[in-house]
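Justification of resources, computational component.

The compute hours requested in this renewal are based largely on the per-chain cost of generating structure records like the one below. Each record pairs the submitted sequence with a full structure-token output. That output is archived, and it is also reused by downstream analysis tasks.
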Amino acid sequence: MNFTKEQMQEFDLLIGKMTRDNKQLTLAHVPGIKGVHDIVNNMSVPSLKASHDILEKINAREISGGKWNVTPYQKRKIAQNEEWMSLIYMSVVYREDLEAKAKLAAERTELNTEVNELEEENKTPEERIAEKKARLKEIKKEMKK
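The structure output for this chain reads:
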């Protein structure tokens, strides 16, 4: 759950580079051609993970004849797939980090509500009256302005 500033900078640079180069990805399990925007914003995390796995398998297949027998075309394809895999991985980590932070924020809000309710329940009538009087004074001051 710790997507660091350094990771965010690397993620931003990769998004910028791939967007500038108008990179597009076509995979059989995902209909249509996917651009950087689709991967970063629209694809679900399970689809992203599946895409990452497929790209890993494609790269493994490309070098199945041995590293020394890889053609220049295969090297370029492997490098492109590794770039996509990096973007996909960072997208997944970023989204999972956002999701974890949202869950923590919701839990914090719920706990704050419970604490406030418990504090309110334990106040004496005198404390409640004093709070209401203080609020009335504030309202009177605001109305005079």
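DSSP finds five helices and two strands in the chain. The mean pLDDT is 90.
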